[in-house]
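Need residues for this backbone.
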């Protein structure tokens, strides 16, 4: 149920530069490992499995695999999953939409993660609610789910709509956030690239949902998962939830 606009944006603009955008991959993976540890995700027990929704190149899949989980990584980008498979062949990859039952396999997952801005990429609040419902249903009893996303509910001042993401001597990535409706913010990524001394410009835009911490927490509660830890830092929300039965 992810919009064609979002898929096209990643295929044409972001996927080819995604690893570059992350910067030092070892540093990024270390941050993910530290976050999982902070949230209480420790070494896997024998046979424990983990599902990574919107896995990309594996910022969460790789640390989970290193902790001993049998990991399945789900994403709509074949290019990003191919990068993950090349670096960690033991991680199973699935090209699927996270609002589809096919993304969740046969369930009984010990740990489920959905990080980045995966939830905000979905087209409607109903689609997010469905993804959360399927996630909770797919967890084993006592299983834990981690959802991370940007809270775009508050419109920034005009001077803060433009964000510098990363730059070096051959490429610069910036983005603009424009709040279109009460439900959606428009993200425009702008890539300047230098080839043979000449700079070129590419742009693409797509919509993201304006999800709030409270709304996602309530959806988790409604579908049977208890939020046990919640943090918000610089607009980034992380929720840890447990399925009691």
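Answer:
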């Amino acid at each position: 149920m992810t919009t064609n606009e979002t898929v096209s944006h990643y295929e044409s603009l972001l996927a080819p530069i995604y690893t570059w955008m992350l910067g030092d991959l070892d540093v990024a993976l270390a941050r993910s490992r530290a976050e999982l540890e902070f949230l209480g995700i420790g070494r896997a027990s024998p046979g424990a499995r983990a599902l990574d929704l919107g896995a990309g190149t594996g910022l969460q899949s790789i640390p989970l695999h290193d902790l001993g989980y049998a990991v399945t990584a789900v994403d709509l980008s074949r290019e990003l999953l191919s990068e993950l498979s090349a670096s960690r062949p033991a991680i199973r990859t699935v090209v699927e939409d996270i609002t589809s039952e096919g993304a969740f396999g046969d369930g009984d997952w010990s740990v489920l993660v959905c990080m980045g801005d995966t939830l905000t990429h979905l087209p409607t609040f109903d689609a997010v609610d469905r993804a959360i419902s399927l996630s909770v249903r797919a967890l084993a009893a006592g299983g834990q789910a981690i959802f991370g996303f940007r809270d775009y509910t508050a419109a920034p001042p005009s001077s803060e709509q433009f964000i510098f993401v990363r730059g070096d001597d051959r490429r610069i990535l910036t983005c603009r956030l424009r709040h279109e409706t009460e439900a959606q913010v428009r993200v425009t990524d702008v890539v300047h690239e230098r080839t043979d001394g000449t700079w070129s410009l590419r742009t693409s835009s797509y919509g993201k949902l304006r999800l709030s911490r409270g709304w996602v927490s309530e959806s988790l509660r409604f579908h049977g998962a208890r939020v046990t830890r919640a943090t918000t830092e610089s607009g980034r929300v992380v929720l840890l939830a447990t399925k009691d039965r």
